[in-house]
Amino acid sequence: MGRSSVRAAAVVTLAALFTGTATASFGSVPEEVNTPTPINAEDGQYIVLLKDAPLATYEGGTSGIQRTKPDKGTQLDANSTNSKKYLAHLKKQQADVAAEAGVTPQQSYGVTVNGFSAALTAKQVAELSADKGVLGVFPDEIYHPTAAVPSTEFLGLGSNTTGSGGIWDAVGGVSEAGKGVVVGVIDTGIAPENPSFAGDQLKKKGAQGVPYTENGDTIVFDKADGGQFRGPITIAQSWDKRHYNTKLIGAQYFSAGAAASGFDFSYDFLSPRDGDGHGSHTASTAAGNFGVDASVEGIGFGKISGVAPAAKVAAYKACYVGPDDLVTTDDICAGSDLIAAIDKAVADGVDVINYSIGGGAASTVLSADDYAFLGAAAAGVFVAVSAGNDGPGASTADHGSPWYTTVAASTIPTYEGTVKLPNGFQAAGASVTVPFGKELTGPVVYAGDIAKAGAATNEAALCFLGTLDPAKAAGKTVICDRGTNARVEKSQEVKAAGGTAMILVNVTAGSLDNDFHSVPTVHIDAQYRAALLDYVRTAGAGATATLVGDNVTGKVTPTPQIAGFSSRGPILADGRDVIKPDVSAPGVAILAATHNGPKEKPTFGFKSGTSMSSPQVAGLGALYLGEEPLASPAKIKSALMTTAYNLVDANGQQTADTFAQGAGHVDPKRYFNPGLVYENGIVDWAGYLEGALGQDYFDGVDPIDPSDLNIASIGIGALAGTQTVTRTVTATTAGTYTASVNVPGVDAVVEPATLELKVGESKSFTVTFTTAGASLEQWATGFLTWTGAGNTVRSPIAVYPVSADAPPTAAGTGAEGDLDITVTPGFTGQLPLTVLGLAKADVLIEGNEKTGEANGGTTNVLVQVPKGIDVAKFALNSSVDTSGTDLDLTVYHVVSPTDLRYYARWQSATASADEAVQITEPAEGWYVISANVYAFTAPFTWTATSALVGPGGVGALTADPSTLAAQQGQAATYNLSWSGLDKGSYLGVVRYGDSQVRTVVSVDVP
User: Fold this and answer.
1) Residues 6 or more apart from 539 whose CB is under 8 A from it?
2) 196 neighbors 152 (Cβ within 8 angstroms)
3) What CA–CA distance (Å, rounded) separates 273 from 275?
4) Burial class (CB within 10 angstroms; exposed 0-12, middle 13-18, buried 19+) of 830
5) Contact, 654 vs 560, CB < 8 A?
6) Separation of alpha carbons 675 and 739, rounded Å
């Protein structure tokens, strides 16, 4: 974000964060209008978050309760007497808020967030949203789990047979890898019988470092960081105390939100037991035992291990499976249950959380779970999250906040097969169902050409159940397109139609998956599809294909490549100044534990997705904490990012797509000694949020430009010519470090370019970016690298050059006048200036301290905003601005004057008596302006005004010259003049070229 960004409520899309309008067609008088409700507000389940700090960030101030926020280098102690006292205080506060609204809390949160879940009516949603003490009201959304050479060997951790030959050796062996650390997994539960989670029987307190039971209902573990994990023993369906052991020391379930939605639990276990396999898979990937024999469908695949095999596991089940195993649309992860799981995991004392759950492309950096993870990170917990499986399109990545590590998925060497054609065509792909070294040859057909009578051709091409003609499929290898239905369902249909084998082919570039199919199958990528189908259709009835149970092409499949499904950045939310994803890790064809019933044998399976890559990073976090128990989440994330390396493409050439790989592929061989780290914490995150969102969320915190957040990447969402960002590094290895930076099309200068540091010493530097040939309104990417002391410390960079750096506001006075405005062009050439307005501010309400008294101090007025408005500004102006006098302003975009459900909501609710909401390019329609007299100490008067700036206007607003002869980086000044204005306040806008840069001009005529 450029430094000239307006810090105003207007730039905040609060509709994306939180879940009551008078039309004033210029000069209207107040009329009674009810409080609007959100457009999507229905009677249903919601999460209500309050503004007062949760346990993890409480700084003190409540009488008799001391600060609970942990000091730097320590974790939160949620079990202290003081903590319990503050949690009780929060619970009473929540009860009071709920009682005033007439609702009953279902789940209470107090550790990472302060709030509760409840069933609300649409009216209660509106009332609570308007409460000044409420941070936001979030619909209880439904989320879903984000769905060779072993990945641990590929990461360089060591042999899965002996445990030696890698990083595990460096930490003292597999028995020390993650020792003393607890990994919390929020997912679909866990399979306690799986050998990945085997351990000794729990006893009363015995040997040091061994988990034990207390009072028969609690499991206690003395951790490496000096703190304790304390988790309750759960008794539930197919689950009792016998399922815990010295490895699996925590298992709980959270289902109130799912139950409130009417979910049918009959297809799952209402307990910590995994009914899906996703949770067991992620848990064993992160911290499963070492050297576990894994077989699938009777085929042995050797031994597997978690990344941190000595770490303990605590499972927090908040996701439940529906009746269809082949889809996730009937599964449920209720948002309120997820928040409860996060809250409890931190309260119990986990050190790491894995969260392989998503809800689509991030539209904000402060959703309900983002806020919960803010508290978790503030409590000292390292959090790894999945980037999502909606790639390869741009801006599809989930989880956009900077306090956790967002993980993309990449490939590793896997089990392969080959498709061979008589014309010399050869394509290697994924396969575990063609016998190794064997060849299967037979006639081949394309599914789209053999549709059953009455079946849609496009569905037959995808091998939907019941779509293939058995007369044309029998005895043949069938080519099925990937997409829509489950991959294994396709081979099921081929078998049902009499086919003997399948070639599964991607339609667009994507992952290659080792599924256990109903017939021998090789899964190949999209680059081979055209040639394959061309041969089949040309050869006709004589077409044959051979499937080989190995890669016999003579070409080694390059790895690691970014998975086609892996979601990409940039994150188009709240300034675009944080690069996501952060890193990539193995996430394709990962073999790990899956689920089983209480009397069934343990199972294993191959799964692909960023759900599989995220626990790799969670495990690396645990591995790091095993060596440095007091390391901050930011330090671990920085070490992972700055030691990462580039991925490769299908030809084996290095790629450096920042929005696909983030900083690059994680490299455990280097991350223990990164050389330099970028530290950041709750104060930094709070300043970032206030700068990015333009809201005063935190007391005593100054906003920062989001680009200045001290993270191990540099993002500038709007580079107007030149911008300087600041970073501070702390040395883990003493030495002299020299900077180099490369962003094609952008000049970047580092000052100082050399840093000499002792271990633990911190120094700051700046990087000044200037557009130098890069295309405007397009991203330019590159890297900053510090080299020294045997280390290379690399940070990804992404900047978005725009046309000009202009002041966001300018002000003048008088019926006739002018002012000079200076801008800095971001390019050399002609820069047209477009002038809009002036528009007179119409008085909507003339009030005093008693206005709205019968409605809790609130007065609502409707305003109609016509099409083509560039800027709308709504303001409250008080006759006094003394302490104790407080007005609040809320603006809602509603459906109509008679339908007060709202699409979007903006609020300016500081401790001041003057408030303003400015909306850029507001949607045409009706808006409710809601003014509230929140507090006063003496009589006073105030006004509410509305100014709508569009084409035309009054006052002959003129820019001279109307086009600037722009020279990049050189200040240029134009004169803005007006005349013939009557008494009042006016608003205008100057736009610069085709960019979104604008200066909002106010003129006051006394």
Assistant:
1) 422
2) no
3) 6
4) exposed
5) no
6) 13
Has 523 been annotated as catalytic?
Answer: no
Decide: helix, strand or coil at residue 958.
strand
187 is catalytic: yes
- Note if 144 is an active site residue: no
Q: How far separated are the first and last CA of the chain, in Å rounded?
A: 36
Helix (H) / strand (E) containing 406: strand 405-410
Q: H/E element holding 685? A: helix 682-693
How many other CB atoms are there within 10 angstroms of residue 89's CB atom?
Answer: 18
* Nearest one of 549, 559, 558 to 587, comparing CA atoms: 559
What is the spatial distance between Cα 713 and Cα 579, in angstroms, rounded to a whole number? Answer: 7
Q: What is the pLDDT of residue 11?
A: 23
What's phi and psi for 477, nearest 5 deg? -85, 130
Rounded mean pLDDT, 612-620: 97
Q: Answer for the pair 335, 115: CB distance below 8 angstroms, yes or no.
A: no
CA atoms within a 13 Å half-sphere pointing along the CA-CB vector of 938: 6
Catalytic residue (one of 305, 401, 611, 638): 611
Distance separating alpha carbons of residues 224 and 838, to the nearest angstrom: 65
- 735: burial class by Cβ within 10 Å (0-12, 13-18, 19+)? middle
The answer to whether residue 147 scores a pLDDT higher than 50 is no
Residue-by-residue DSSP string for 590-640: EEEE----TTS---EEEE-SHHHHHHHHHHHHHHHHHHSTT--HHHHHHHH
- pLDDT tens per residue across span 410-469: 998 888 999 999 999 999 999 989 988 889 999 999 999 999 999 999 999 999 999 999
Which residues fall within 8 angstroms of residue 216, CB to CB, at 6 or more apart?
A: 233
Name beta bridge partners: 186.
316, 355
Spatial distance between the Cα atoms of 384 and 597, rounded to a whole number of angstroms: 28
| Candidate list 4, 108, 187, 469, residue with the active-site label | 187
* Torsion sign, CA atoms 871, 872, 877, 882: negative
Number of H helices, E strands in the chain: 17, 57
Burial 856-866 (b: 16+ CB within 10 A, else e): ebbbbbbbbbe
For residues 187 and 315, the answer to whether their CB atoms sit within 8 Å is yes
> Are the C-beta atoms of residues 102 and 123 closer than 8 Å to each other?
no
Average pLDDT over residues 689-702: 84
CA dihedral in degrees (162, 166, 171, 177; nearest 10)? -60
Give the closest residue to 563 by CA, choosing from 519, 516, 522, 614.
614
Render 39-57 in DSSP notation, one character per residue: TT--SEEEEEEESS--GGG
Q: What is the pTM of this model?
A: 0.82
Q: Residue 226, class by beta-carbon neighbours within 10 Å (0-12 exposed, 13-18 middle, 19+ buried)?
A: exposed
Q: Which amino acid is at 788?
A: G
Nearest to 512 by CA among 435, 410, 581: 410
Q: What is the pLDDT of residue 144?
A: 58
Neighbouring CB atoms inside 10 A of 465's CB total 14
Catalytic residue chosen out of the listed positions 278, 281, 517, 595: 278
Contacts of 71 (CB under 8 A, 6+ apart): none
Neighbours of 984 (CB within 10 A): 16
Angle between helices 682-693 and 368-378 (to 10 degrees): 150
Is-contact 225 625, C-beta < 8 A? yes
562 DSSP assignment: B
Type of residue at 853: E
